[in-house]
Amino acid sequence: QVQLVESGGGLVQAGGSLRLSCVASGRTFSRYTMAWFRQAPGKEREFVAAISWRAYDTYYNDPVKGRFTISRDNAKNTVYLQMNSLKPEDTAVYYCAGTSDTTYPPTESTRYDYWGQGTQVTVSS
């Protein structure tokens, strides 16, 4: 069992930066692929980024490549999403997710077993 809690969302101006954190409980955390998804009002849930359990591999959706960085600190049971050069299109509720499934690419929300409650990110123009 893994429980996830996100934090770090807020209101920022376009071009600004924000770092999201996801704290996990559970002794198997270090073996989980972790990911961030987001969902804007009226839109489908969208994959953002994922990181393998030893942080050897990362994967990003095209809209955030070069701007967002996913990382993890297994000793702290935490995964991060550093968001730079933010755009209004990035506005959404961001969710942290975890899975033991190593299927590549890790972009399908149905592969993830555990989800956080979400944190709101709003980017003003």
Please report the total strand number as a whole number: 11
Largest sheet properties:
7 strands, mixed
* Helix-strand category: mainly beta
Mean pLDDT: 93
Molecular structure report:
- The protein is mainly β.
- The chain is built from no helices and eleven strands.
- The chain has strands at residues 3-7, 10-13, 18-25, 33-39, 46-51, 58-60, 68-73, 78-83, 92-99, 114-115, 119-124.
- The strands form two sheets. Strands 2, 4, 5, 6, 9, 10 and 11 form a seven-stranded mixed beta sheet that branches. A four-stranded antiparallel beta sheet has the order 1-3-8-7, with no helix packed on it.
- It is globular.
Looking at this protein, list some descriptive labels:
0% helix; 125 residues; 7-stranded mixed beta sheet; mainly beta
Architecture blueprint of SSEs:
Elements: E1 3-7, E2 10-13, E3 18-25, E4 33-39, E5 46-51, E6 58-60, E7 68-73, E8 78-83, E9 92-99, E10 114-115, E11 119-124
Parallel strand pairs: 2-11
Antiparallel strand pairs: 1-3, 3-8, 4-5, 4-9, 5-6, 7-8, 9-10, 9-11
